[in-house]
Amino acid sequence: MSIELNCKDGYNIEIEKKEDRINILLVENEAFGERILVGAEERKEFLTPWINMLMHHKKEAGIKGTMDLAKKLEHIVLFEKGKHEKGVLALKSINTEIINLRKEFQEKEEQVKIKK
Fold first, then answer.
1. CA-to-CA distance for 111 and 90, rounded, in angstroms?
2. How many helices and strands, by DSSP H and E, does the chain display?
3. DSSP character at residue 116
4. What pTM was computed for the model?
5. Phi and psi for 29 in degrees, rounded to 5?
6. How far is CA 89 from CA 21, 53, 95, 112, 115, in A?
């Protein structure tokens, strides 16, 4: 299964499912369409593969850090604010969300290493 999402500001997202693995690629190309809307309750699930890429494949993915990832995602995604708030997250808030999730994932990885 393969899905390609065309987004504005010169980026596409390609999602490809191979067996039990999902690959998500951010592809730079001509601008087209509009941004993806991600609800507050979907944010963690949406960001998980991006955070894993940031943590484990940063160099191959061409990601320089959390703010660089936040900027790239801001071009293709609108993240809705919380349940009782209207509007979308600003760049700083996206970056903070990425930092917090990365910290959470790193702590889980360390706990797994300790248990081994």
1. 32
2. 4, 5
3. -
4. 0.69
5. -160, -160
6. 29, 22, 10, 32, 37
How do the pLDDT tens digits run along the chain, 116 residues long? 455 555 555 566 677 767 776 676 666 554 445 788 888 988 999 999 899 888 888 777 778 899 999 999 998 889 999 878 899 999 999 999 999 999 999 999 898 888 76
- Sketch the domain layout of the chain as residue ranges: 2-115
Structure tokens at 26: 């951010």
Read off φ and ψ for residue 81, nearest 5 degrees: -70, -175
Phi, psi values for residue 30, rounded to 5°: -65, 145
Contact 11, 77 (CB under 8 A): no
- Spatial separation of the C-alpha atoms in residues 18 and 32, rounded to whole Å: 26
Q: How large is the C-alpha radius of gyration of the chain? A: 15
- H helices present in the chain, as ranges: 43-56, 58-61, 66-76, 91-115
59: left (phi over 0), alpha (psi -120 to 50) or beta: alpha
